[in-house]
Design brief:
280 residues, mainly alpha, two-stranded antiparallel sheet, 8 helices, 65% helix
C-alpha cells in the first residue's frame, strides 16, 4: 500500500508563503488594472494580445479584452478543457491519429490566417516596398474568430492528457478526446461563434469573461504543472483537494507574469489599448 510522503521543510514553508503571495498578487492586479470589471479583464488580455480596436469585437463601441482571434482561441480553450474534464475524467492518452490530423488542420488554418492577417497589417502601416507584399485574401474578424477557436480546441486537446499524465497516481489509459467528443465540441464552438457574430451584448459580455479567464486559467495550469515538476510531485495526487498549493503557486506566478508584461507594455506605449499606430 502506497503512503503519501511527509512534506519537506520547503513544502511546509511554501504552504504558508504561497497563499500570502497569491493574495498579494491578486491585490496588486486589482490596484494596477484599469477600473471596472471589464478593465480588470483588459489587464489580462493586455499581457497576451495586441488589442487592436479594429480587430476586436465591440460592446457598445467598447472593445473586448482580447482581439477576435485571441477571443476565439482562449474562450474555446477554456471551454474545451472544461468539457474534457466532464466527459473524459482521468483519460490520459493523446488523441488518435485521425483526430490529431483534424487538430493539425486547425493549427495550419490558424497559422495561415494569422500570417496573412499580419502581412495585411504590414501593408497598411508600413511604407515603400512592404506595401507590395501579396495577400491570399482580405482578412476579417469572422476568419480570425473561427481559426482562433480551432486553435483553442487543438491546444486544449493536447494539454488535457498532459495534465492527467502529470497529476494522477491512477490513470485511465484511453484517449482523452475521441471522434464523438470532438464532434460535440466543434459543433458547440461553432454555435457559440455564430452567436458571437451577432455582436449582441448578451453574448459578448459572458464571452469577455470566459476568454479573459480562459487566458488566465491556461497560465495557471502551465505554472501549476511547472511547480509540480520542480517539487517532484508528478503522479502523486489522488484528488483535487491535494492540488491547492500547486494551484495557488500557479495563480501567483501567472498574475506576476501578467502584471510584469502589463507594466512593461504600459511604460512603453502609455495606453491600455492596442499598440499605437496599428489600426488595421
Amino acid at each position: 500500500m502506497q503512503t503519501n510522503p511527509q512534506p519537506s521543510k520547503f513544502e511546509s514553508i511554501a504552504s504558508w508563503v504561497v497563499p500570502i503571495a497569491a493574495i498579494a498578487a491578486i491585490i496588486a492586479w486589482f490596484i494596477i488594472a484599469p477600473e471596472g470589471a471589464l478593465g480588470k479583464l483588459d489587464a489580462i488580455g493586455y499581457a497576451v494580445c495586441h488589442r487592436i480596436d479594429a480587430r476586436s469585437f465591440q460592446i457598445n463601441d467598447r472593445q473586448l479584452p482580447l482581439c477576435a482571434r485571441c477571443t476565439g482561441e482562449f474562450y474555446s480553450a477554456g471551454l474545451a478543457l472544461l468539457f474534457q474534464a466532464v466527459v473524459s475524467g482521468r483519460k490520459s492518452k493523446l488523441p488518435s491519429r485521425g483526430v490529431m490530423a483534424v487538430l493539425f488542420a486547425f493549427f495550419v488554418a490558424f497559422g495561415v490566417d494569422g500570417t496573412n492577417s499580419y502581412i495585411y497589417l504590414l501593408k497598411q502601416t508600413a511604407q515603400d516596398g512592404l506595401a507590395q507584399l501579396p495577400n491570399l485574401y482580405v482578412p476579417n474578424n469572422i476568419l480570425r474568430l473561427f481559426t482562433g477557436s480551432g486553435m483553442g480546441i487543438a491546444l486544449a486537446a493536447m494539454l488535457y492528457p498532459v495534465i492527467n499524465q502529470s497529476l494522477w497516481r491512477t490513470l485511465d489509459d484511453r484517449p482523452a478526446l475521441e471522434w464523438k467528443q470532438l464532434g460535440i465540441l466543434v459543433a458547440g464552438i461553432v454555435v457559440i461563434n455564430l452567436l458571437i457574430l451577432t455582436e449582441s451584448p448578451f453574448v459578448l459580455y459572458p464571452i469577455a469573461y470566459i476568454s479573459a479567464l480562459g487566458t488566465l486559467s491556461l497560465l495557471v495550469i502551465v505554472f501549476g504543472l511547472l511547480w509540480i515538476i520542480l517539487m517532484k510531485q508528478d503522479n502523486t495526487f489522488d484528488n483535487l483537494r491535494q492540488l491547492w498549493l500547486a494551484f495557488a503557486s500557479g495563480l501567483t506566478l501567472a498574475l506576476l507574469l501578467v502584471l510584469s508584461i502589463d507594466l512593461l507594455r504600459l511604460q512603453f506605449t502609455g495606453t491600455w489599448g492596442g499598440f499605437p499606430g496599428l489600426s488595421g
